[in-house]
Amino acid sequence: MAERPASSARPVEFDLPVHGGFAPVGIGETFPDDTPDADELEIAGEPGQDPAAAFRRTLGMFATGVTVITTQDGEQVHGMTANAFMSVSLRPPLVVISVDRRAKMHALLHEGRRYGISVLADEQRSLSDRFAGRATEGTEEVGFDLVHDTPLVRGALAHLVAKVVRSNWGGDHSLFVGQVEYARYGEGRPLLFQGGRYRHLLERAPVFSSLPPEILAVITAEGVERTFEPGEFVVREGEPGDELFVIIEGEARVEREGNALSTFGEGEFFGEIAVIDGRPRSADVVAVSPLRALAISRDLVRSTVEREPRAAWAMLEVLAGRLRDD
Ligand code: FAD
Q: Does ligand 1 come within 6 angstroms of the Cβ of 304?
């Protein structure tokens, strides 16, 4: 038998036999009618909290990616943001989505209908908002590609087209199991969602990765995302500066009088000198490549450092490293 090229080497689980052809007893039966209400749940923690809200918050601790589910109904293309997407089986290829019974999407899906799944990339947050009905002014136009008569959001990190083979009642949501007919993936970073907020995947963040999650959550939620073209100034020497920048993606170069002093990449921060001493910027910072950065205000940096000595120490370590390099 010809050897498979390394790039398409299959994980070992593909070659393990799947026993039987029948589901074990109990699997495949419908959901029980006597499911408890959220009010009957035992919720640990603060007494008096709303059980349904606490249940929701508990589920929200599970980090997911974000997808846009799409379907075509006659001439109409409809999309809906969903994070309740899961792989079910490799053989046969099955996935499942969970759709609110009140959603318009719910009325469009049924057995035999195809749906598309577009896994959103990190920079497609505005599309997630749009397809969740939260579009803000100025949201860019959405482009769709049609595959197997199914619309898919252009530019997404991965695409799947699935045909609904089973649908199940799941309380106030329904589950639509889809047999996958098409799959494509690309390179890039996914948009993440956890604790009711979008998150960024910062793989190398010398200061920020050492912070406790509750502080990191405040910083990423309150920081403002900015994008810069290659060659664009992020900060200019002499300007007043009250923001520190953390690079989400790309590179930035620090320059003084046209001389390059250092280059910062993903996860690193810059702009701290003016934030700490309150005086004008001491150098220019220019985007080397397309740059995405989180701008964090002086007040936020200050309150973080005051609340969390580990943040202060981690920042001092980075600054000391910069002094040594100079
Ligand atoms: P609508 O609310 O009518 O439409 C959704 C939005 O998409 C509208 O703003 C509409 O203008 C826009 N839109 C639709 N089609 C097009 C098109 N062709 N071109 C341009 N814009 C279009 N709900 C679930 O049921 N399951 C989940 O797993 C889920 N996960 C979520 C995850 C996140 C991160 C978020 C933010 C929301 C999630 N929701 C989920 C909520 C869900 O996205 C919203 O309730 C959504 O509004 C329901 O959509 P709908 O089908 O009722 O359609």
A: no
Q: Whose CA is nearest to atom 38 of ligand 1?
A: 82
Q: What is the mean pLDDT of residues 264-281?
A: 85
Among residues 69, 137, 149, which one has the least CA distance to residue 103?
Answer: 69
Amino acid making up residue 136 = T
Q: Could you give the domains of the chain?
A: 6-30+52-199 (2.30.110.10), 208-323 (2.60.120.10)
**Is the pLDDT at 35 greater than 80, yes or no?**
no
- Give residue 212 CA to ligand 1 midpoint distance, Å: 32
Minimal-distance CA residue to ligand 1 atom 15: 78
59: number of Cβ within 10 Å: 9
Cα first-last separation, the chain:
59
Model confidence at 2, in pLDDT bands (50, 70, 90)? very low
The residue with tokens 């209400």 is 37
For residue range 276-287, what is the model confidence (pLDDT) as tens digits?
Answer: 888 899 899 999
Phi, psi of 221 (to 5 degrees): -75, -35
Q: Confirm or reject: Cβ of 321 under 6 Å from ligand 1.
A: no
Measured from the Cα of 133, ligand 1's closest atom is 9
Tell how far the Cα of 84 is from the centroid of ligand 1, in angstroms.
Answer: 12
CA-nearest residue for atom 27, ligand 1, is 82
Question: Ligand 1 centroid vs 119 CA: distance in angstroms?
Answer: 14
Half-sphere exposure of 172 (CA within 13 A, CB side): 6
Q: What is the rounded CA–CA span in Å between residue 65 and residue 51?
A: 26
Beta bridge partners of 17: none
Q: Is the CB of 83 under 6 A from ligand 1?
A: yes
Q: Give the predicted TM-score (pTM) of the model.
A: 0.73
Q: Return all residues near 25 (Cβ < 8 A) that are at least 6 apart.
A: none
CB contact at 8 A, 203 and 197? no
Averaged pLDDT of the chain: 84
Which residue has its alpha carbon closest to ligand 1 atom 2? 133
| pLDDT (0 to 100) of residue 316 | 81
